[in-house]
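Sorry to interrupt, but I need a hand with the structure work. Go ahead and set the record down below:
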Amino acid sequence: AGCLIHMHSDGDVRELTDDLLDLGINTLNIQDLVNGIDWIRDNLKGRVCIDLDVDRQNIVRFGSPAEIKDLVNEEVHKLSSAEGGLMLKNDIYPGIPVENLRALMDAIEENMTNK
């Protein structure tokens, strides 16, 4: 009926993605490190809009601001695509240091126009 389909899934979805894309999904929200940045690049980049959940379980919560910036830079460099698109998101949970949230938002903002 012309509707855009946005699919969200937590966890490892690598075995399901071809079937999901065959269903006509336009945007796929998945976790970055659970599925692997290189795997996402090799299998999804340019095929679907990637709505990437930036790791909230380890790097954003326990990493340094530099590690967060490096992660976001890697994801944008490897996954951005005019053919599919890339969106970055993160949920904020208790216990995440404010400096890490600031680093995450700064890194995303710095990469907003990178191609």
Summary: The CA atoms of residues 24 and 66 lie 37 Å apart. The mean pLDDT is 93.
